[in-house]
Prior knowledge:
about 25% strand; alpha+beta; 5-stranded antiparallel sheet
Amino acid sequence: MASQFLLLACLAMTASIALASDPSSLQDFCVADPSTSVPVNGHVCKDPKLVVADDFFFSGLHLAGNTSNPAGSKVTPANVAQIPGLNTFGISLVRIDYAPWGINAPHTHPRATEILTVLEGSLQVGFVTSNPENRLITKVLQKGDVFVFPVGLVHFQHNVGNVNAVAIAALSSQNPGAITIANAVFGSKPAISADVLAKAFQVDKDTIYDFQSKF
């Protein structure tokens, strides 16, 4: 009986790991074909005979992003939308630029764990564990430091210096997705009822209307 239970437990763990990542490629590559509109989980493969080096190439992460916005940050992605050859490989990259005291606002990646490396500056980073603890795990990073944000958890970065900061992050999905909490809650279309949000945030509806007007 014990051996049967152990076998079932191992199978369950294997299945959960398999379901937690992008579909694996069954060939050398499956370059995304943007010319087709066939709906699939991922992208339809381009004819391998038509694949060229540029399908696996992207240039631009050496360029600083424009941080002239309310958050004071800019994310430059290098995912399957920019590099078709990433299709089915379960990995992508972003560059993040931060103005002094700029933030990458609290957000989640529904399909990816993220590992971030600071290239320049100092960043306060952190994530919040799931209910009911909602524990904040946070640390100040310096140049060369690395930090991991677990898949699906709300996380953020904050430039805590008087100079620009830069980070590079890898994500465990070709298309990790991003849900910025404030944009999703206060900027949804159509809008979430002010009654619902007022009760959820324990404020009056006028405060909610003010927040919604910003998004």
